[in-house]
Design goal:
Radius of gyration: 32 Å
Structural class: mainly beta
Distance between the termini: 51 Å
Number of helices: 3
Shape: globular
Strand content: over 45%
Length: 664
């Protein structure tokens, strides 16, 4: 596109003058004059501007070869700042770039505004991988004193990168270690993370029994590969010097996984079967764990038996298991060999064209070898389990074409309702759980447990049951801006125990999960667990998210968990959480988060983050206050800078994981 185009038929070339715009794929070139030859596939420009994501370049005397994708220019500027007057730029006597591969500046000078600040005879930056760079996070924390977290990110190749950490905390000392990420193509990909320090104030172990050794470390390795079609390999290794090293220095990771596991897993898939081999050793002696050396499982997916109406599925496994108690507790280790086989037949049917029924019957046999490591050798155990049941459901819907509501932003309505009933009967097995070694046992859970097999996978905790699970799923949908949107999405379940055990009531807790979206910018979520027998709420989690525009947003929620006898009185809590974002101006934004503990009347955690847009860079100043439950307040403050072209965090990551803003 240009004000004037001149085409030479003999030379097969074209000249463009005045507001020229040339687009080739994702490349966009603009300038006053550009010529292009269809014979030599070369382009020349007197003055040009182009985007080579994430860079922008301007200059004169451009010569571009479309054949080998090599472009060169003289007296050129390059920057990542997409403005007519960039905040910073590199001026080069000669600029050579290959789109998608690299950009090279010769006799280069770095300008901040119009001020030259640095000279490089030659500077090359690859476009197909993240550039080498330093990252520094200065800050202060009560437990650390002043600290400086430094990282050098090294892009080794397109398929490998490394990071070298050099950290200093005044109260805790020097720390660091290398990280490595790699992609070996068909041989898989993985990463290695290491961290070593001599802690000058390590404190005591979680049980407050003995001091933690000052030589502390964390080593994490993970690798996964598709060896061939449907054959996967995965290994994970996590070694820590003590139980609190991640808690003290890697809060984001610690919140996700308090006790990381180590294992090797191989899985082979076929159309109707899978074979899984899992080896899970105990790497950290201070964590409670179940060793599986190994655990081999053959699974038959649900499949039709010939042309009969019957479907078959099964799970068979053999494992050498060892229960290992943590070092901070009394030693109650025990081990045994376990062989388990589950076989099930089903007859799925559709009656009257709308009613789905699936009767089922299954049998299970489990063999336990003599227990070891208990101070004596116990007898072998054999257990037989029978299970039967039937599951039924149907779906109905209705559409109101003329439904309109400006208040609820409704254009047409569709209601979908799906009731379900699942009956499961298991007579008393030949051996009850107290008579068997317990490895995969049933533990208290806030979530609803499955009542049928093989979804119920607490193999050693299987006992008799006679229960009906009622479920109801409702959806109310409308059209908003041409897309289908759920106004209401609600699912509720309750169990009716026809023959409750001694410690059970006739009706189990009601579980409810509700999403309500009255407008496209308002979302209300509700998760509840209600005890109908005691007439009380056991678990409640409610949140409201309001995002009317890009100027402000607010997410507020309340999470309540009643004290649980099985987990102790401290397992219960009641928290109010709030996160508010305000864009104060074009360049400033502010976010503050609060966690208030209603049970103890304490402001448990406070975050305050001030964002600053420096055009090419973004900055964040973060304050955090945390009550550690002992009457002391842990105070922290840190500064982070990020280049817009190469952001440090993914979209929304700083909000979901605010500890990363502090460098943790």
């Amino acid at each position: 596109v240009a004000n004037r185009l001149k085409f030479d038929r003999e030379a097969l070339s074209v000249e463009a003058e005045g507001n020229v715009r040339l687009q080739r794929g994702k490349e966009i070139w603009t300038g006053n004059y550009i010529s292009y030859s269809f014979l030599t596939r070369q382009m020349n420009a007197a003055v040009f501007r182009t985007g080579i994501a994430p860079f922008y370049a301007t200059g004169e005397g451009l010569h571009a070869s479309v054949t080998n994708q090599t472009h060169s220019a003289t007296n050129a500027f390059v920057t990542t700042d997409d403005l007519d007057v960039p905040g910073y730029r590199v001026r080069a006597k000669t600029l050579v770039f290959v789109p998608g591969k690299y950009i090279e500046a010769r006799r280069a000078v770095l300008y901040m505004g119009n001020v030259p600040v640095f000279y490089l005879p030659r500077y090359r930056r690859h476009l197909d991988r993240h550039p080498n760079n330093f990252v520094f996070v200065p800050g202060y924390r009560s437990k650390y004193g002043p600290y400086l977290l430094g990282t050098y990110n090294w892009s080794i190749a397109t398929n490998a990168s490394a990071a070298f950490h050099f950290d200093y905390r005044v109260k805790r000392g020097v720390a660091g270690g290398p990280d490595l990420k790699y992609d070996l193509g068909p041989w898989g990909e993985g990463q290695l993370q290491t961290y070593f320090l001599y802690d000058e104030d390590p404190g005591t172990d979680p049980a407050n029994l003995r001091p933690i050794e000052p030589d502390r470390h964390r080593i994490a390795f993970a690798h996964s590969a598709f060896v061939r079609t449907n054959l996967t390999f995965k290994t994970v290794f996590n070694h820590q010097s003590d139980a609190l090293v991640a808690h003290d220095f890697f809060e984001t990771e610690y919140r996700k996984n308090v006790q990381p596991k180590s294992f090797v897993e191989i899985q082979q898939l076929w159309p109707n079967f899978s074979l899984n081999v899992l080896a899970q050793p105990r790497v950290n002696d201070f964590f409670q764990s179940i060793e599986r050396l190994p655990d081999i499982k053959l699974t038959a997916f649900r499949q039709q038996l010939g042309i009969s109406p019957f479907y078959y599925e099964s799970e068979s496994s053999g494992a050498f298991l060892r229960f290992c108690e943590g070092d901070y507790f009394a030693a109650t280790n025990h081990s045994a060999f376990r062989a388990d086989s589950f076989q099930q037949l089903l007859v799925p049917q559709t009656l009257f064209g709308w009613l789905n029924l699936t009767p089922r019957a299954s049998g299970r046999f489990t063999y336990y070898g003599a227990e070891q490591d208990t101070g004596f050798v116990s007898d072998e155990h054999r257990r037989w389990v029978f299970n039967t049941g039937i599951e039924g459901s149907f779906k109905a819907s209705r559409v109101w074409r003329d439904a309109r509501s400006s208040l609820l932003d409704v254009t047409e309505l569709r209601h979908i309702i799906e009731p379900s009933v699942n009956y499961s009967y298991t007579p008393a097995p030949s051996a009850r759980p107290p008579e068997l070694p317990q490895f995969d046992y049933e533990w208290y859970s806030y979530e609803m447990r499955p009542i049928d097999f093989p979804d119920y996978n607490s193999i050693d905790g299987i006992d008799s049951q006679n229960v009906i699970r009622f479920g109801l799923h409702n959806k109310l949908q409308t059209k908003r801006r041409g897309n289908v949107d759920d106004i209401v999405n609600w699912a509720a379940f309750v169990d009716w125990r026809l023959r409750p055990e001694k410690d059970q009531s006739t009706f189990a807790d009601i579980f409810s999960d509700l999403d309500f979206k009255p407008r496209s910018w308002i979302t209300l979520n509700s998760e509840m667990r209600y005890d109908v027998n005691e007439n009380l709420i056991r678990v409640a989690n409610h949140t409201a998210t309001i995002e009317p525009n890009d100027v402000w947003s607010w997410k507020i929620g309340h999470r309540y968990v009643r004290e649980i006898e099985e987990l102790g009185p401290e397992a219960g809590h009641s928290l109010i959480m709030s996160s508010i974002y305000l864009r104060l101006s074009q360049n400033y934004g502010f976010r503050f988060r609060h966690h208030f503990d209603i049970k103890h009347h304490v402001m448990q955690e406070q975050y305050y983050t001030l964002y600053r847009d420096f055009r090419s860079w973004t900055g964040a100043l973060t304050f955090r206050l945390r009550d550690n439950g002992e009457g002391n307040t842990d105070f922290a403050v840190a500064v982070q800078l990020s280049l817009k072209a190469f952001p440090r965090f993914a979209l929304g990551q700083d909000s979901d994981e605010p500890d990363r803003l502090l460098g943790w």
